[in-house]
């Protein structure tokens, strides 16, 4: 599998690495959330859960969280420890021990 990417203006960058990990960076909001939704829909996850690395996300709103919640059952979310994104993911309750992996420094 080759690396693929999607860019939404200067606000969001999504990289699908050759190993199947999605790296997301920028702002995940009402303007950019549809791009992440399309990316997840057009790159189906077969078998095991796929990693969604959110360490590069600087801001997430309710629209972004809706996409994450819709797909939480088939993704492992990776967040930066003690980051605002990690706090929001926790507040939405999708950071179960099997669902969120926090980066170790």
Describe the overall structure.
With 105 residues, the protein is of the alpha/beta class. It folds into 2 domains: 1-47, no CATH class; 75-105, no CATH class. It is built from 3 helices and 6 strands; from the N terminus they run βββαβαβαβ. The chain starts with a strand and ends with a strand.
Main sheet record: 6 strands, mixed
DSSP, total strands: 6
Report the uncertain regions.
Answer: none
Name the strands of the widest sheet in spatial order: 1-2-3-4-5-6
* Shape by Cα distribution: globular
The whole-angstrom Rg is 12 Å
The helix/strand series, from N terminus to C terminus, equals EEEHEHEHE
Mean pLDDT: 83
- Classify the helix fraction into a percent range: 25-40%
**End-to-end C-alpha gap:** 29 Å
In percent, how much strand structure appears in the residues? 25-35%
Q: How many structurally independent domains?
A: 2
- Structural category is alpha/beta
Distinct helical segment count: 3
Provide a quick synopsis of the model.
With 105 residues, this protein is an alpha/beta fold. It has helices at residues 33-42, 62-71, 84-91; strands spanning 4-8, 12-16, 22-28, 50-60, 75-79, 100-102. It has a six-stranded mixed beta sheet with strand order 1-2-3-4-5-6.
């Amino acid at each position: 599998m080759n690396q693929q990417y999607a860019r939404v203006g200067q606000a969001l960058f999504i990289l699908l690495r050759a190993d199947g990990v999605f790296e997301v960076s920028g702002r995940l909001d009402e303007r950019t959330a549809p791009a992440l939704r399309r990316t997840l829909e057009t790159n189906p996850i077969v078998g095991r859960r796929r990693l969604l690395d959110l360490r590069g996300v600087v801001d997430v709103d309710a629209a972004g969280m809706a996409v994450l919640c819709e797909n939480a059952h088939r993704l492992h979310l990776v967040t930066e420890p003690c980051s605002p994104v990690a706090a929001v993911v926790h507040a939405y309750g999708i950071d179960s021990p099997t669902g969120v992996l926090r980066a170790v420094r």
